[in-house]
Amino acid sequence: MRCVIARFPFDFTASEVEALLAKVKPEPAEGPCAVIGRHTYPVKQVGEVITRQDRRDFTAGEVTRALRRLGFTVTQAPAPDPLPTQAATDLFG
């Protein structure tokens, strides 16, 4: 499938994306994330691996659209738990 990321055209298939990410350790899930194989990757990490471009050169939206067109599930990572407040620390600490 042809897609444009950071003004550059790319031709990807789902199996090519899976092969490129097969030996890549996923970073902590933050923001939009793609489920590829048995792992969940931040879409910016996926974009960097498959395009070999710096993450600052493209948006998460560009990669998200491409991954969805390839059939991958893209979700929003859950927000991290807030740090405990001083009051909670006093009660339980």
Task: Give a written overview of the molecule.
By secondary structure, the protein is an alpha+beta fold. Helix content is 37%, strand content 23%. It has 4 helices and 5 strands. The protein has a 3-stranded antiparallel sheet. It has a two-stranded antiparallel sheet with strand order 1-2. The termini are far apart. The model has no long low-confidence stretch (mean pLDDT 88).
The major β-sheet equals: 3 strands, antiparallel
H-E string: EEHEEHHEH
Strand content: 15-25%
Report the end-to-end length measured between terminal Cα atoms. Answer: 55 Å
Give the helix/strand layout.
Layout: E1 2-5, E2 8-11, H1 14-21, E3 32-36, E4 39-42, H2 43-51, H3 60-69, E5 73-76, H4 86-92
Antiparallel strand pairs: 1-2, 3-4, 3-5
From the structure above, extract its key features:
93 residues; alpha+beta; three-stranded antiparallel β-sheet; two-stranded antiparallel sheet
Quick structural summary:
By secondary structure, the protein is α+β, with helices and mostly antiparallel strands.
